[in-house]
Amino acid sequence: MTHTDRVNNVTMEAGQLRQWSPTVIIRLPETVDYRYEELSGSYPMVNPALQYPIFGPEIQCPHCRQEIPALTLTDTYLCPRHGAFEANPDNKELVHLQSGRHWRQWEGEWYRQHTHPDGIRFEIHEALDRLYTQGYGPRG
């Protein structure tokens, strides 16, 4: 008698099945362990809402505002231009993994969380420059 493992697409004889039946542990965002026997064929039912990070299946990249997808069964979003962002469900922040910068969402926009006064000064000057190029400037 043979058995085909649907996960790895491997066919095994009955004698081999008794020797090889590991337990697989899947770590979901809710930190719940779903344990099942790989060879039993009983796979856990996963709520589709638990497959994505806390901000949903896609968000706007905080840098380029391009729609970026979530990686299924992780807390990560992946921008092709700026890399990975990890969503922290505890404090509802988004962390850019490459730079370590933290972002928070407010009224649908991402705002960077500054840890040093020079960072906020730079961002204020950038915003003022952007307003000035749009025609808002000192009158006189």
From TrEMBL:
InterPro entries xrefs? CHP02652 (IPR013472)
Pfam families cross-referenced by the UniProt entry = DUF2396 (PF09654)
Species assigned in the record: Halomicronema hongdechloris C2206
Return the protein name. Answer: Uncharacterized protein
